Amino acid sequence: MKLLVTGVAGFIGMHACRRLVADGHEVTGIDDLNAYYDPALKHSRLEQLQGLPRFRFERADIAHREAMEALFAEGGFEAVVHLAAQAGVRYSLDAPFAYADSNLRGMLCVLEGCRRQAVKHLVYASSSSVYGRNTKVPFSETDAVDHPSSLYAATKRADELMAEAYSHLYRIPATGLRFFTVYGPWGRPDMAYFLFTQAILAGQPIKVFNEGRMQRDFTYIDDAVEGIVRVLALPPQGAEGASPHRVLNLGNSRPQPLDTFIALLEKHLGRTAQRELLPMQPGDVESTFADMSAMRALTGFHPATALDEGLGRFVAWYRQHYNV
Fold it and tell me: How many angstroms separate the CA atoms of 320 and 35, rounded?
């Protein structure tokens, strides 16, 4: 297929694009290469894609209406993998309007492009953050998600509702993927595993929030990409009277305590972390845990990478990339 992948210089975007090209698709990737975190890492990711057959890059901001209209009009895209977003729970406390621009206006521009060009399937990134202050675990797609813990979570839930409206009005097949703590080589520097690795190697203390009483459903990047690829091939049809739109969890379904996570990092780094115990951060949650039954029923997908193996691969990449 002819595909558009947004956020192609991002962590998930780069890996997804590389896999989609390898699978034989023709991919146009876009990214604005902003400075939310070190643009050098984004440029390095993009270098991994440049020169691949059937890939071309366009620098564009998804919130720029005219640029997106022109891109869709010229692209002839059959499907869209929309991964661009302003990420980060804590940053949304400091820069809320960045989330309105990218996650709301940007999503609207993508939806309008899909509507005007009759795209056959839109697969877009949502987040486990939409579960907010839910206490029932594992988190299921049928759970109520009306109590977000952060503006970031609220914008991702808004993306789901916008997709539902466009799917209902214009019959756009759309799938939202609620990603659960995706990690691995080429990851985001604002995430805990990256920050912890950086601090431990520098002999600096790591910040352990909620005094370590947390657990996360860590999802290795290759597993996340496998989920994207399988879902992309199965656009929802929409039963009579229902819109062709769905949301699916994409996680590992094996939550790990923060202490276990830190111990594994220490093992692979060969160093002991100095811990600075801190209270819970505003907007954060104690636990995430994905119910993957809907994804398994639809695609047969089972995550294959254990946390120990995945962190080992990340540490090896980190040492090589940063020459540590």
Answer: 23
The answer to whether the predicted template modeling score (pTM) of the entire model surpasses 0.90 is yes
Token pair 């960045």: residue: 98
Instruction: State the Cα–Cα distance between residues 68 and 267, nearest whole angstrom.
Output: 46
Residues 27, 18: contact at Cβ < 8 Å? Answer: no
The residue from 91, 124, 131, 152 that is catalytic is 152
Question: Helix (H, G, I), strand (E, B), or coil: what is residue 309?
Answer: helix
> What string of pLDDT tens digits covers the 324 residues of the chain?
999 999 999 999 999 999 999 999 999 999 999 999 999 999 999 999 999 999 999 999 999 999 999 999 999 999 999 999 999 888 998 999 999 999 999 999 999 999 999 999 999 999 999 999 888 889 999 999 999 999 999 999 999 999 999 999 999 999 999 999 999 999 999 999 999 999 999 999 999 988 888 899 999 999 999 999 999 999 999 777 789 999 999 999 899 999 999 999 999 999 999 999 888 888 778 888 899 999 999 999 999 999 999 999 999 999 999 999
Spatial distance between the Cα atoms of 271 and 275, rounded to a whole number of angstroms: 13
How deeply is 311 buried, as exposed, middle or buried, from its count of CB atoms within 10 A (0-12, 13-18, 19+)? buried
Which CA distances in Å does 146 have to 38, 132, 133, 176? 34, 8, 9, 17
Task: Check: CB of residue 124 under 8 Å from CB of residue 174.
Answer: yes
152 included as an active-site residue: yes
Rounded Cα distance between 178 and 190, Å, is 19
3-state secondary structure of 176: strand
Q: Residue 122 forms beta bridges with which residues?
A: 80, 174
